[in-house]
Design a protein that fits this description.
The chain is of the alpha/beta class. It folds into 3 domains: 104 residues, NAD(P)-binding Rossmann-like Domain (Rossmann fold, 3-Layer(aba) Sandwich); 34 residues, Double Stranded RNA Binding Domain (2-Layer Sandwich); 60 residues. The strands form 2 sheets. It has a 5-stranded parallel beta sheet, sandwiched between helices. A two-stranded antiparallel ribbon has the order 6-7. Strand 2, helix 2 and strand 3 form a beta-alpha-beta unit.
């Protein structure tokens, strides 16, 4: 992290399976962070002299690795991303200094001034991910906004995004379909009220719905 004044965090989605992650801290905050990382297949190591029962259970299930000792600069060697999840400001500042020295990305829970990146509130519907952020300035409000978006985007959108992905596979990536037809097919798909259609007709498969659209353009 450079010392220049921050102008804001750049939104990005990252494949955590490409990075080894280490979580500094072994308590409730760390456990919450570990659970969120496991959802995305992260390779996680936890370092702390005291490890909570809940984290130990994850280790027993081979979900995480544990280093039961005090944090030291050497502990982060070989890791691509560090999460400092302690309630000790001194440790957090030390981790910040070490990560800056080694060029390792750092997230410090609840302290955006020490972070290279922050984590938004997410609404996830299968492969559809909607992220909400206040640039770390009002997380309590982004939580409220997340609940609002959850009501606006019900779970049925997991099916809708799956259908959109299937349509892309069959049409958009098909070199035999001309660009104008592709645009018309996309417009046809996005103009449908899929939430109403899918909840009102459970007998048809996703592919049946796609075929109905393709038939209008003499495609199959």
């Amino acid at each position: 992290m450079k010392n220049s004044k921050k102008v804001g965090f750049y939104p990005i989605l990252i494949n955590l399976q490409e990075f080894r992650c280490i979580v500094v801290g072994g308590g409730r905050i760390a456990h919450r962070k570990v659970l969120s990382l496991l959802k995305f297949g992260a390779d996680i190591t936890v370092i702390s002299p005291k490890i909570s029962k809940s984290i130990l259970e994850l280790a027993n299930n081979k979900s995480v690795k544990i280093i039961k000792k005090e944090y030291s600069e050497k502990a982060i060697d070989g890791f691509g991303i560090v999460f400092s999840a302690t309630d000790n400001p001194e440790i957090n500042r030390t981790v910040r200094k070490d990560c800056t020295k080694k060029g390792i990305l750092l997230n410090v829970v609840d302290d955006p001034d020490l972070c290279d990146f922050i984590l938004p509130a997410n609404v996830i519907r299968g492969d559809l991910t909607i992220s909400i952020s206040s640039q770390g300035k009002a997380p309590f409000f982004t939580k409220k906004m997340r609940h609002k978006v959850e009501r606006l985007i019900p779970p049925i959108y997991e099916d809708i995004i799956n259908m959109a992905a299937q349509l892309r596979k069959q049409v958009i990536l098909n070199k035999n379909v001309n660009p104008k037809t592709k645009t018309r097919i996309l417009k046809q798909f996005t103009s449908q009220n899929w939430e109403k259609i899918l909840m009102g007709n459970g007998r048809k498969s996703h592919q049946d719905h796609i075929e109905e659209i393709l038939n209008k353009f003499n495609l199959d």
